[in-house]
């Protein structure tokens, strides 16, 4: 992976726990060397490996899938969205379990996924089941679920947004490079010359705060908490499950496996005759086709 690609992956606006950032950096640097390693699951469709009604959101969240996802531990929001749509449309699934073990990821993709979860939840309950970690954008998504359970040692929260700006001007100068920025306005092209100026910091801060406000508002709405309560928690702190429960960020503490087993319908359960007319129109709205009932 080129240094340019690595820079692109590590800059921008993120909702991820800070400790995960170093792991992302190291993983991406290893990706190029590991790209040639054969994938034992190659050619096996995800749908063939997945239990209906159980969607796994495990890893660092990105918007789109890429060739290095399995290598570096990324999970694409578009993949999670497709699986959720399929399970909501599946007449044999009564409730959907979204299993989460993620420190968060890019804000791009996560906000859309959170909105989709809220939308799909009007048709079929989606329960978040946390196994160890649900922070930042992962919690953004979980907060829109019908319920959130977590194991006792789980880390929850880290509500907030941040961005990292890399100043390359000193390195550029050492390499004998000099850039002259020509733009159509004061804000256009800020940072394109490699300099992190006060003006650039101010502009990025505005964006970060705007995203953070939307994040906090979504949590308050999804968890039915007072906005001021969420704002007090939205300083980036994460909490062990017992504290998260006390703050209203989760609903109960239990083993993830117990919750998953209880949430999956019994093999002998008969599916409903089919969704109502309202459900069918809603399924068309979200782009999912209602499958025929499974026997």
Short description:
The protein is an alpha/beta fold. It has helices spanning 3-10, 18-34, 46-49, 69-72, 77-89, 107-120, 137-142, 169-174, 198-223, 227-233, 241-247, 256-263, 277-285, and strands at 12-16, 54-58, 60-62, 74-76, 96-102, 104-106, 126-135, 147-150, 155-157, 162-164, 238-240, 252-253.
Description:
There is one protein chain. The chain has 295 residues and is of the alpha/beta class. It has helices spanning 3-10, 18-34, 46-49, 69-72, 77-89, 107-120, 137-142, 169-174, 198-223, 227-233, 241-247, 256-263, 277-285, and strands spanning 12-16, 54-58, 60-62, 74-76, 96-102, 104-106, 126-135, 147-150, 155-157, 162-164, 238-240, 252-253. The protein has a domain at 3-164 and 229-257: Alpha-Beta Complex (2-enoyl-CoA Hydratase, Chain A, domain 1). Helix content is 44%, strand content 17%. The strands form 3 sheets. Strands 2, 5, 7, 8, 9, 11 and 12 form a 7-stranded mixed sheet that branches. Strands 6-1-10 form a 3-stranded antiparallel sheet, with helices on both faces. It has a two-stranded parallel sheet with strand order 3-4.
